[in-house]
UniProtKB/TrEMBL annotation:
UniProt keyword Metal-binding present: no
Lineage: Bacteria, Pseudomonadati, Pseudomonadota, Gammaproteobacteria, Pasteurellales
Keywords: Amino-acid transport, Cell inner membrane, Cell membrane, Membrane, Symport, Transmembrane, Transmembrane helix, Transport
One Pfam family per UniProt: Trp_Tyr_perm
Topology versus the membrane: Multi-pass membrane protein
Organism: Bisgaardia hudsonensis
Designated name of the protein: Serine transporter
GO molecular function, one term: symporter activity
Length: 413
């Protein structure tokens, strides 16, 4: 095989690009236009310029961090221990798990609510038994994760194609309703900066696919064997994912923001409903009211898979670090993790608590630290990553990380 054939983008890379896209586009995308658009049109333009490079550079740095291990096939929890020592390894693994696990709980709860709402409102049937419904849905999702990687990637691909198509179709459908009145409303510099500061974390988490980056990087290493080749393909795939997210998600956001006034976006936020539910009510359109639950179902399911990979890695890493058992049977470990997730997700889905959003926001600063700050610190301190020093992208990622973390912490208080 020639060098150009080895480095060429291929089907394997495309499947991972779609998988990472699916991880990022969770149910959050349905609330993104409400959160990102309420500041008006011009802050959104600046966000669109920033979010592409911000997403790509941060995730590429995290992938390079995973690939920097001297032991091929190491996951993020092992790489952290190798570079920062056992104590830091345990601490970061614990934080990594507690940043991703609550999001998994939210998705287990969210998919139960989505299907229940669809049965009641769209099909006009009585609400099914919540415990049985949740058990069927969560067991089905976890069963996919117990299959091999190729099947999991294929199922994600089948979910992501309709998701991309529906987002694009809805964005185009709204074009005749666009109003450009908001273009005349120029914000003051103070309101522009405060809007950007508060909204950057929303964009970071709506485009975040860091829970799947460790598994993705290991998969690249397994596929391409050579370190440089794995790194090259990882960068190309991450660039593909960032481009997909920028084009499809931001087009959808712009289309919604140009269709609705800031007052309507504020009303949607007050009503605590997704943008699709609000649009369906506004236009009295049965198609949108049917597409809303479908998009939510596809988005939650595809995102669940990516977050499951990260949560499982964190849980298994914690088990290995606490017991010190490095020779553990990974298949048994996978099944043990699956049982733990099934029981906890099912329990939370039955209880249906309202505090889940708060737990997710508490995980926000940890995810931003692991995604933005840790790889930048590693570039400065770790010999294996010294070759990435002196790049402007490092400064950009560090600044964006600090902004995101400070805004999330400010939002909590």
């Amino acid at each position: 095989m020639t060098h150009s054939q080895k480095t060429k983008w291929n089907k394997f890379d495309l499947l991972w690009s779609l998988n990472l896209f699916g991880t990022a586009v969770g149910a959050g995308v349905l609330f993104l236009p409400i959160n990102a658009g309420k500041g008006g049109f011009w802050p959104l333009i600046i966000m669109a310029i920033l979010v592409g490079p911000m997403t790509f550079f941060a995730h590429r740095a995290l992938s390079r961090f995973v690939l920097s291990s001297s032991k091929p096939g190491s996951d993020i929890t092992e790489v952290v221990e190798e570079h920062f020592g056992k104590t830091a390894g345990k601490l970061i693994t614990l934080l990594y798990f507690f940043a991703i696990f609550p999001i998994l709980l939210i998705y287990g709860n969210g998919i139960t609510n989505t299907v229940d709402s669809f049965v009641v409102h769209q099909l006009g049937m009585p609400s099914p038994n919540r415990a049985i419904l949740a058990l069927i849905l969560i067991t089905s999702l976890i069963s996919v994760m117990l299959m091999n990687e190729k099947i999991m990637l294929k199922i994600t691909e089948l979910l992501v194609y309709p998701l991309v198509f529906i987002l694009l179709a809805l964005s185009i459908y709204l074009i005749p309703e666009w109003s450009f009145a908001s273009l005349n409303e120029m914000p003051t510099m103070t309101s522009l900066l405060s809007t950007l500061w508060i909204t950057i974390p929303v964009l970071v988490f709506s485009f975040n696919h860091s829970p799947a980056i460790s598994s993705f990087s290991q998969s690249q290493q397994h596929q391409y064997q050579e370190k440089e080749l794995a790194e090259l393909h990882a960068s190309k795939t991450l660039k593909g994912t960032s481009t997909l997210l920028l084009v499809f998600v931001m087009f959808f956001v712009f289309s919604c923001v140009l269709t609705l006034t800031p007052a309507e976006l504020a009303a949607a936020k007050t009503q605590n409903i997704s943008i699709l539910s609000f649009l369906a009510n506004k236009f009295d359109n049965p198609y949108i009211s049917y597409l809303g639950p479908l998009v939510a179902f596809l988005a939650i399911t595809s995102s669940f898979f990516g977050h499951y990979l990260g949560a499982r890695e964190g849980l298994e890493g914690l088990y290995i670090k606490i017991t010190g058992n490095k020779q553990v049977n990974h298949k048994k470990l996978h099944y043990g993790a699956a049982i733990f997730f099934l029981v906890t997700l099912w329990g939370v889905a039955i209880i249906n608590p309202s505090i889940l959003g708060l737990i997710e926001s508490l995980g926000g600063p940890i995810i931003a630290t692991i995604l933005f700050i840790m790889p930048m610190y590693a570039i400065r301190k770790i010999p294996a990553m010294k070759k990435y020093q002196g790049k402007f992208s490092n400064v950009f990622v560090t600044i964006m990380g600090i902004i995101a973390i400070s805004a999330v912490i400010y939002g909590l208080f």
